[in-house]
Design a protein that fits this description.
The complex is a heterodimer. Helix content of chain A is 12%, strand content 39%. In chain A, the strands form two sheets. A four-stranded mixed beta sheet of chain A has the order 4-1-8-7, with no helix packed on it. Chain A has a four-stranded antiparallel beta sheet with strand order 3-2-5-6, with no helix packed on it. Chain B has twelve helices and ten strands. A ten-stranded mixed beta sheet of chain B has the order 7-6-5-4-3-2-1-8-9-10, with helices on one face. Chain B is globular, with a radius of gyration of 20 Å. The chains are: A mainly beta, B alpha/beta. The interface between A and B is large, with 45 and 59 residues. The structure holds iron/sulfur cluster (SF4) (2 copies). One iron/sulfur cluster (SF4) binds next to helix 11 and helix 12 of chain B.
């Protein structure tokens, strides 16, 4: 609860600062040291008919040049509303992240769906905060999963 | 004290930012971890605030010792969200840098480095990228002669621009260039900007001389207050109009009515709030630019995570800085005594940026 209140206060401050014509994002990047970027990937996951499905995991991985694929984050998404949102600081190259959508509950919740893997290139770049490339980039995707 | 009256719009935004800042202090989420991996350096810069020498008496820190720190941190954070910044000295002096980078990355921590570029070759750059290097900061202090003068090396300009070119050509690699603005290069800023754009640079950070280390008594390096304002005007104008590259002023200093116009964010010193460091001798501190004794522990005696969670009091409660010129300063609310790196061992303030705006 306390965390939620803090988060709301923070969002309110970001909003006030923005309304006053200054730039600010919720997670502020430090300007000492090397530049940091925040990437956010979001969108919806449904079955082919557009119905929300539960029991899907959203896994973000990075594959940097010769490095093995490293799992960066797993976010289970909000099945009821079919929204997913995942983000990471500082991935230097959006073209190397992949996002997997994996059915983890088999036949339950509407059937067993095939996994899908996308990269940011398959997504639509929605917005870029702080008006330059090096700060916060948002990508959106609409995913429809097919039954196995 | 500076007399500029803050506009109401700016004051309201600063108040909102202050609330966010205090929340960050309470949470003190570790976001950037510096590793001073060596004090060896291949240059002898006029403005260096660090203790480095070409033949440092202090040995490089063994990689395994730093990895031990990462292992202490890992259970408490999402490693993907803590950024390791390898600094020095000059990190490229370490022949095992690629091995270090890879080991850090294999633990899930993204990393970047701060470099002068002198020892960067294409082969090395590729190897560092393959070792998971996510970002870098390269220093460039002027066009040719001025850069070499500052760096004390005849080939340093060529090497730095080559390193920048490699990064600029690497699509998707996010990096920036920092320039220490001084009397000699102030008039060259447009020339430097065009050069950087031609090399593929998208972000350019400018800062002024650090009043300690080798630069403290070098009059050629210190900007007058008028020139300092000129620099801020230049950054402000470019931020508003220049779409090819983003300029910003370094993180130090509360800047009165320039706040919000010359950086992405308002001033706050994040040392010990989101920035921690492991120095070459194992000391646990915050920014590596803090040279005075604000050390909170040592990795050879203490657990880094315990220190991060339970010490760092002088960083998180800055009331002790509220003395002398800061005691009755009307900007204390927003500034809280400037960056910690501007405090000496005795806690005294070495420089007030806001005061420099009074001309
Ligand atoms: S450094 Fe001290 S005197 Fe200067 S603006 Fe900040 S609080 Fe005021
Ligand atoms: S100590 Fe100095 S360099 Fe570090 S965050 Fe504070 S102002 Fe910036």
């Amino acid at each position: 609860m306390k965390n939620l209140i803090n988060k709301l206060i923070r969002l309110l401050c970001v909003w006030v600062i923005g309304m006053l014509g200054f730039s600010s994002c919720e997670e502020h990047s430090d300007e000492y040291g090397t530049p940091i970027t925040y990437f956010r990937y979001w969108g919806t996951v449904t079955d082919e008919a557009g119905n929300p499905i539960e029991g899907i995991n959203v896994i973000m991985s990075g594959n940097i040049l010769g490095m093995p694929n490293v799992q960066l984050k797993t976010e289970s998404y909000d099945g009821e509303k079919s929204n997913f949102s995942t983000g990471i600081f500082s991935t230097a190259d959006t073209h190397i992240a992949t996002i997997d959508f994996v059915d983890v509950d088999g036949e339950e919740n509407g059937g067993d769906f095939q996994s899908v893997t996308i990269t940011p290139q398959d997504m639509v770049q929605e917005s870029q905060f702080d008006d330059m490339p090096a700060t916060r980039l948002e990508y959106k995707a609409t995913i429809k999963l097919k039954k196995k | 004290m500076g007399e500029q009256k803050l506009s109401l719009r700016r004051r309201l935004a600063l108040e909102a930012y202050r609330v966010m800042k205090h929340q960050s202090v309470k949470e003190h989420r570790l976001r950037q971890l510096f590793w001073e991996c060596t004090l060896r350096c291949n240059l002898n810069c006029r403005h260096c605030g660090s203790d480095c020498r070409s033949e440092a008496t202090q040995k490089d820190m063994p990689l395994e010792d730093f990895l031990g720190v990462l292992d202490q941190i890992t259970p408490h954070v999402n490693p993907n969200e803590v950024f390791v910044i390898i600094s020095g000295g000059e990190p490229l002096m370490r022949s095992d840098l690629e091995r270090c980078g890879r080991a850090i990355y294999e633990r899930g921590f993204p990393w970047g480095m701060v470099t002068n570029g002198l020892a960067m070759t294409e082969k090395r750059y590729r190897a560092l990228r393959a070792a998971g290097m996510h970002t870098a900061t390269v220093s460039l202090d002027g066009l040719h002669e001025e850069h070499n003068f500052m760096r004390g090396h005849a080939r340093s300009f060529e090497a730095a621009t080559n390193a920048i070119r490699l990064m600029g050509a690497d699509k998707g690699f996010i990096f920036d260039v920092v320039t220490c603005v001084n009397r000699r290069n102030l008039s060259q800023l447009d020339g430097i900007k065009e050069l950087l754009i031609s090399l593929g640079v998208k972000a350019w950070r400018l800062f002024t001389i650090f009043p300690s280390g080798r630069a403290a008594d070098d009059p050629e390096l210190q900007l007058s207050n008028e020139d300092f304002c000129r620099l801020l005007d230049y950054i402000r104008k470019n931020r508003a109009e220049e779409k090819r590259i983003e300029l910003s002023y370094g993180c130090e200093g509360f800047l009165g009515n320039y706040e919000g116009d010359v950086r992405k964010h308002f001033f706050s010193c994040n040392a010990g709030v989101s920035v921690g460091s492991v120095l070459v001798d194992g000391s646990i501190s915050a920014c590596t630019s803090i040279r005075a004794d604000y050390i909170q522990g040592n990795i050879y005696k203490d657990n880094f995570w315990d220190v991060w969670q339970n010490r760092f009091e002088p960083y998180r409660n800055r009331e002790w800085m509220r003395k002398e010129e800061c005691a009755d300063c009307s900007m204390w609310r927003y500034c809280e005594g400037n960056g910690i790196h501007l405090r000496g061992n005795d806690g005294r303030l070495m420089l007030c940026h806001y005061d420099r705006l009074k001309i």
